[in-house]
Amino acid sequence: MIAVAVQTLRMRWVSFLGTVVALVLGVAQVAAMGLLLGAMLHLPDRPAERFAQAPAVVHPDDPDWDPARHDLGVRSRAAAVGVTPELLAKVSATGPVVADRAFYAQVSGGPADQVGHAWSVARFGGYHLTAGHEPAGDRDIVVTGPASLGTRVTVFTATEIGTYTVAGVATSTGYEHAVFFTDAEAARLSPRINALVALGPVEAVRAAVAGTDATVLTGQARHHADASEARDRRALDDTVTLLPIMASVAGTTAIFVVASTFAFAVVQRRREVALLRAVGTTPRQVRRMVLTEAALVGTLGSAAGVVLGLGGARLLTRWLIGLGISPPWFDVRPALTPAVLVPLAIALLTGVIVSLGGAATAAWRAGRVRPIEALREAAVDDSGMTPGRWLLGGAGLLTGLGLVGWTAFGAPGTVLVPNSYVPTLLAPVLATALLAPVAVGPLTRLLTWPFTRTRGATAVLVRAGALNARRRTAATAAPILLTVGLSLSVLGAADSVNEARDQGLRNQTSAEYVLTPDGTPGLSQAAIAKVAAVPGVRVVAPILTTVYTRDEEFLEENDALVVDPSSLSDVYRLDVTAGSLTGLDDRTVVVPDGWHLDLGSRMDVLLADGTTAELTVAAVYHARRGEDVAYLPSRFAGTAQFARDGLARRAYLSFAPGTDHTAAVEAVRSAVAGTGATVRTGAELTASERAFSRHLTAVRQKSVAGIVVLFCCIAIVNTLLMATAERRRDLALLRRGGATRRQVLTVFAAESALVVGIGVILAVLASALNLGGLWIALIRLFGPTPLVVPYPTILTVTAVAAVLALLSTVLPAAAALRRGAGSVDRL
Predict the structure, then answer these.
(1) Which one, 78, 162, 314, 715, has the greatest CB density within 10 A?
(2) Number of H helices and number of E strands within the chain?
(3) Over the chain, what is the mean pLDDT?
(4) Where are the domains of the chain?
C-alpha cells in the first residue's frame, strides 16, 4: 500500500497541493507561535536600571499580586502605601538609607513619561552631571537630555504647576526621562516613599525586613523595582493574549481544510477505490493507503512548515513589536535549547496528527464501500450527508446555539475578552459548513430559478449539475462559506464592540465640553482649580483611585472615582435605582448595584494610602459595562496619588444657568493655557478615546481575520482546482453534444458563480447567528447600540473569493480544452 500511496501522490499531486500548502503554513504558524511562547517562558535576564549601583533595595510589595491582572497604573496595596514609618525605622537601624520617591513630574514641552526623583538616588541609577551642579535649593532641578543651564521652566506635577530653575544637566540613561529635585522638595511633592536603598549589611537588612510587606532585592532581582518591569510584563501578557487566539483559529481552519480536502479527494477517487476493491483489495488495505497518503503529506508538509516557522518567528516578533504589543527588546533566537526544540517538535507532530486526523474519516468511508456500491457511487452522487456528518453538523449547530445563547444571556462580558469570544465564533460557521449539503438543493433551485426561464441551456445545465452532484457543490462552496462567514463574524464583532464602547462613553456624561490632557498623561489639580475659578463654570474631574473591601478572608480591589459632590449630577448620566446623587458628601459614597449594598448601609473601606474610612451608601445605580465604579467625595483625592498617580484623565464642564457658553469656554481656554490641558467637545473626546481603545482589539481580531482569509483562499483554490481537474468527462460530454468552447467555459463560470452564491448565503446565515448574539450581549452591557459591519472590507473579501473561485474553475477547464477533451469512452 505504501508504493500505491506514493504513486497516487505522484499522479494526483494537484489534488494534494492545497493540502500541503495549508499544512506548511499552519505548521509554520504553530512553530513560530511555539517559539515565541517558549521564548517568553525563558526570558533573558533584564539588567537592573534605576538601582543598578545600589547594594540592596527594600521594596514594598505583595508576592501574590500580579500587575498584569490589573488596570494600567494600579499598584498592589503594599506598594501603594510604600515604605511605612515603622519599616523606615527598622531599616535605618541597620545603616544608612536613601529614600527613593518616584512621581509624575513633567517639564513643559517635555515627554509625557517624565518621572520625578530626589537627587540623592541619582547615583544608583547611573546618572552623572554633564553640566551645572546638583539642586542647591528647593526651586532647582536637574534634567536629563539637552537643556540650557539657568533656564526657568514650568514643571507639572499631580498637585501643582511650579516654576523651577535648571541647575544641572545629567546623562540620559535610556530607561526613563528623569527630573531631579532636592530631597526636601521631592518629599513635599510626593510624601510616599517607593523604596529604600539600604547601605548597611545585607543580612542585617533582611533580618529587619522579615515579617513585613517588603522584600530585599539584590543582584538581578533589583530589576523588580524598576518601572519598566511592569510595562514589559504587560506587553508580554498582551502577546500571550494574542497568540492563542491566532493559534486556535488557524489550527481549526487548517484542520477543516485538510479534512475536507482529504474527504473530497477520496470521493473523487470512487472509481479507483471500486477497481481496487474489485481486484481483491481489503477495506483495511484501502484505509491504510489513504492514511499512508496522509502521513506522507503530513510529514513532508510539516517538515517544510517547521523550517518556515524558524524564520517566521523572527518576522512575527518584529510585527508584534511594530504594533506596540511586544516590548522592543523581545526576540527569538534559534538555538539547540529546549525552548526552541520542544516547540518545533510539537509543531511537527501536530502537522502529522492533523493530516492523519483529517484523513481518518475519509479512510473509514473508503474502506466501508463494497466493490459494486463503489462502482455505482462513481456514476451517481448522493446527498453528501453521511451519518457521521449529520452527527458532527448537528452537534456543532447545537454547540453554536449554546455558545451564542450563553454569550448573549449568561456571560455578555465575554464579548470583550477576545481569548474567550473569538473561538466561539467558529462553531456556527463550521457547523453550517458541515450541514451545507442539506441546503444545496433549496439554494440551487432558488438561485437558478430566475434564469431557467431564459433562452439557452446554460441555466438548466448548471442547475442539473449542482443538484446531481450535491456533495461536490457543498465541498466547493464550503471554503467560500468559511472565508466570508468568519470574516464577517470576526470583523463585524470587532467593529460592533468598538462602537458599543464609544456609545457607552457617550452615554456616561451629558457634558457638552470636556477638559483633556494636552501633551501630558493627565490633568493636575492646579489646572482643574483654574477652571473651577472661571465664573459660571462647574467642573467635575474624576480621579481614579483604588479602594479595598473585605470579602470574607480576602481583600477585594475595586475602582473608585473621586469627584466633587456638588457637580456630580450635573454631568454624569447614572441610572440611579435608590437614593440620590445629591446625597454624596464627605461621609457617603455612591456605589454600583453590582456591589450588592443597600441604600443607607455602612461599609468599611481600606484606602490606597493605608488609611481606613467608614462610609454610608447615599445612592445605588445600575452599572453598565465600564461604569461599575464607586464615587467618593473629593476629600479622598490624596489617596489617588498612592493608588495611581493623582492625575485626572479628563474633566467634564457644565455651566450655571444664564451663563454664556461660548464666552465661558473661551475663558476656560485662557485659564488652562500653559497647564497641559485643552478644551474639547464631547464628540472630539469620543473620537480620541476611540482611537486609543481600538488599537489592541483591532490588532487581535483583524490579525485573526487575516489568518482565516489566507487559509480559506488556499482552500478555495485547492478545492475548485481538484473539482475542475476531475471533470474532464463533463467537458468531453459537452463538446460531443455540440457546445462550443465558449459555451463550455460559460457553463463552468456559471457553476462557479452558483457555488459562490450558495457559500455567501450560508455565510450570512451563520454570521447572523453570531452577530445576533453579540448584539444582545452589547445591549446588556452598554445599552442600545447598533451593529456595525465593515461592508467595504467584507465585500472586498467576497469579491476576492469570487474571483479566485472563477479563476480556479475556468482556467483548468480552458487548459483541458486546449489540450483536447478526447472522447467520452477514453475518459
Answers:
(1) 715
(2) 25, 22
(3) 80
(4) 1-43+232-380, 57-231, 384-507+687-827, 508-686
